[in-house]
Amino acid sequence: MRCVPFLLALIAYSGLWPITAQDYEEDISLAGYHQDDEPEITLMPGDPGPLEVNLGGQVYSRCTVSNSHEYSVKWIRRLPDHSTQEVSSTAMLYIPEARAEEMQHPLYCQATRLSDGQTFEKALNIRMVGYGGASLPADLTLTIRSLPAEDLSTGRIMRQCLFEGNEEVNEQFDFRWLDQNGRVVTNGDALYLMLEDPADLGNYTCEATHRSSNNIYQAKYHVTRPSHAQASQYVVTVVPDAASQVLLGRPYEMLCRVEPMPSEPVTYRWYHNDRMVGSDARLRLPSLAYPDIGSYVCRAEWTPAYSRSGKMSPPPGSVLVTLPGETRELHCEFGQLSSPSVQWFFEGQPLERHPTLNASRRVYRMDRLRVSIVTLSGVEVGHGGTYECRINGQIKQTHVIVRVEDGLEVNPSEDTVDEGTPVEFHCRAHGADQNVNREMQWFYQPFSGGPIQPVDLNPETGFVRQDHPYASHTSFISRLRARKSDEGIYICRLPSEGSEARGRLYVRSTVQYRVVITPPVLKVRVNNPIEFECYVVEDTGRQADVLPNFSVLDSRVRFDQERVAANRVRFLIRSGLTSEYNGTQVRCAVEGTDRYATSIIVIEDTCPHGFRRCRSGDCLPAGRFCDGRRDCPDGSDEDPRLCNECEPTVKKCEYYQNRPPLKSTYMIHWKCDGEDDCGNGFDEANCPDPSIAQCGDYMFTCPNSQRRIPRSFVCDKDQDCEYGEDERNCVGPTIESIADYRHSVRAGTQVTLTCRVTGNPLPRVIWRFNWGCLPENDNRYRITNVAQNCDSPMPSVISTLTISNVRPGDDGIYNCEGLAGSMRAMSNDYFVMIEY
């Protein structure tokens, strides 16, 4: 193995740990607070605690507050910076996978009193108990690689053990190295040896132990000492490609040569700043930039392996371009030599005796154990030329070029780009004798005139400024995609010198935009959260690098706007609106163009769950609509037009076995309950319902009298069993929605919504779209229900709504509704947004 440097210059866990709230508690004093006012908060499970949770397992708890109708409840996570993160917007906490990095922060149930906004919290005491789920890739391979500083010819071994290409996985492991006797050589992923004793030769093992699962991975490395005869047989050199020039923004290539070429296959590794940057004999830098500055090491490996290295590292490198007044260092580095003979030459003459350099009295030499340094303090024009470092017959060169220029310059002075393509300006101060790029100021003025304004340097909306320490006289501003509104004059100023330079940018309009709001109509209940998303695409369908903005015609409406992506924003009214704002129009537009889109907010003052509204405004149970009897004061419950409107909890009775129904409708939870509600058996056909069949019969047997009653009679607030067993142990349904309630889905793809409904009796589950029914006779909508915990006092149903081939019109609000006897529950809103 050989390694040589090349320098490039540029012009100018398994245990238990408790999680509690004490570390992040704050002392909060609220005006008007009284201890007697504090509600009782109960966490089930979680009281008295601790709640044991497996790492990778599920976290579940329900928060109950006394006088719950007076409070809104949610779950939060309190972070170390004292900010909070909402985990669940309901009283139900459900985390499908407990991650260590998240579970180290305490979880709180937070109750907010509706009357005065005061908040009360209770911490969930969690104790992690080991590893509950494998999250490691199945194809993990532990590898050993050499480090740039390794030099086998001198007996210096430097190897690193890691899972290549996966930094996140490496952070989950503890590494150590063992020798051939099983003794720990070092704790960590790096092995460092100086081969001074033959006993150090042999096999070394790297062990990586996963902190949570205790899984152990191993890799072995055999250490041998090559002979000096073999080491001196080969020479590894790095040479620049003959056609390459050291110019910013241009390609640059280097070649790693082994002479003579070994008969065995040779592998190459290139290193820059201790990071591997290439694996071929030829290293190509596609566009030279300032971060590319520094030393490049090529390591060639074959069998047997050996190396030799020498380093000449004047920052920035083998061709050094500098300005008068700057200070530069030329480094000549060498391995551990017994008696190194280091000589410096300038333009072929010994450095110490060169008349020009000695006359300047600005050139200094310093020799240390492994490096010799020549410092040019306050560069002068006469310092330009070729410098050589000669070590025991080896020669290392660097060429110093001194450029003498004055003033401020913006490049390019004029540029024309197409809309959507990159643009960059840089401002350079020639002849400055200090670091001035941070003093530079950038301004912008439209071609149409007007005031000169500072350039927008917000990376999300404008340009990015880059002032690199290696280019201390130059300031850069750039933008990935130019916009027509960027057209104008860009002005660079250096206040300390009172100088100014200008560059002009012209942007050709080649892009037409299309603005889309999703959903186009949003139906919400009073004071429920309101969300829209708006994005911009080019006519070609490509995402535009333009951020739109929302506006509302009604000045009374206050909203928040969040950036989702470079071309997408979100409209939010978290507390919703009252019915007086029904019909509010929302507009989304691209500034400086005539492109916009609008949407309408429809606010419906709905009745409670399981009720429908008469035209008179009264709310009646949905089952009393269209049953042949006039129940609304105005009789509208029997109006055919209202009867034809879809209501998710009500189903139509249809012809069955050539017999007409005696009633027009039946309630959804009456289906397959053992009682003929339609009069022709239609509602009892095709039974049992699969979700109920898993939990036993669809009839209920009274324990004492053995009387069988329809399951829909259970917990309906009417005693049907002789001793009232059908009204015992009733628990209203609770809905556990997943944390991700917002779904952005591309047209033509699929979206899946899931909720878990728990209660007693086993709940029935329906889905709503914009508070109404799902589209009828559309097989793109598929609902599956799976019953769980049938033998427990709290059985549950996991319901999944899958929408295939999503298309415009499917975007809007979806809800999961649970029905258990006479009790109802509605999920939070699921927002489905469409992308194109």
Automatic annotation (TrEMBL):
The keyword Oxidoreductase does not apply. Residues 1-21 form the signal peptide. Disulfide bonds join C607-C619, C614-C632, C672-C687, C715-C730. It is found in: Membrane. PROSITE patterns: IG_LIKE (PS50835), LDLRA_1 (PS01209), LDLRA_2 (PS50068). Residues 39-125, 137-224, 226-313, 315-401, 406-512, 733-816 form the Ig-like domain. Its main location: membrane. One of its GO terms (biological process) is cell-cell adhesion. GO terms for cellular component: cell-cell junction; plasma membrane. This is Basement membrane-specific heparan sulfate proteoglycan core protein.
